[in-house]
Amino acid sequence: SHDLILDVLADRMPVLCPGHYLTSTHVGSTAGLLALQRDEAHVAPIHLLDPASGVYNLPILREMFPHEPMALIKGVERIQGLILPPGNPLGLRSVADLPGRRFINRQRGAGTRLLLDYQLAKLGLEPESIIGYEREAATHMAVAAAVQGGSADCGLGVWSAARALELDFVPIGREEYDFALPQKYLALPQVAAFRQALADPWFADRLGEMGGYACPRAGEVCLVENGS
Fold first, then answer.
1. Would residue 213 be called left, alpha or beta, if left means φ above 0 and alpha means ψ between -120 and 50 degrees?
2. Left if phi > 0, otherwise alpha if psi is -120 to 50, otherwise beta: which for 171?
3. 195: which of 67, 69, 188, 219 fits an S-S bond (Cβ 3.0–4.6 Å)?
């Protein structure tokens, strides 16, 4: 799952812990978990809401890894919402206003796209009513760039991306953006370095500059035992 904080962490890790680096590929939350299943990554950032319980991240780990002891490294709370042109010329105020508008979506399996589908279902709206629902972008900044360039009226993404390109933003909700990994990786020095970067006061200060984040538990570990 993509977030601008990954670039911040990638810059900070080698400063705090020389010799350790963060390399990321943006494939979406669900595909990231599949990569963990295939042992293709150490850590997968996720923000997957369970519609039944309203709980982020833990339910999907229990479902997808019934026989592998998993863990969550707590990341950030972030604000998702509608990214809009300056001045919000169409006066969009919620997901309910999206039908008939030119939209740019995130890729299938992305937590942001799942959040949109959840909101549409609650409102009884069909995805087909949104022009461009099938148009996909791999990152929040790509969504923001499409809106800035005028090829989309709006997109769903994080506040920090809208702020970076001086776009308007209408908040939709706050979510938990955490880092999933098998418990066996917690002892790795590179994972320890990653947690140190998350808990670094400099990181919290940088988030404050970016806007739309809170990190009260960043770097903490939550163990998810087999199906428990």
1. beta
2. beta
3. 219
Q: In 3D, which of 24, 22, 17 has the Cα closest to residue 46?
A: 24
Mean pLDDT of 204-222: 94
Residues in the chain: 228
Both tokens of 3, joined, read 């977030």
Residue 208 CB coordination number (10 Å):
12
| Residue listed under structure tokens 């629902």 | 133
> Residue 35's beta-bridge partner residues?
none
**Tokens read off for 26:** 């943006």
Question: Kind of pairing, strands 221-224 and 136-137?
Answer: unpaired
Say whether pTM exceeds 0.85: yes
Average pLDDT over the chain, rounded to an integer: 94
115: closest CA among 51, 164, 34? 51
Nearest residue to 43 via CA among 198, 219, 138, 178: 178
Beta 213-214 vs 103-106: how paired, if at all?
Answer: unpaired
> In angstroms, what CA-CA distances link 28 with 6, 78, 120, 137?
13, 16, 20, 10
In the numeric block, the tokens 């833990």 are attached to: 58
The structure tokens 């169409």 sit at 90
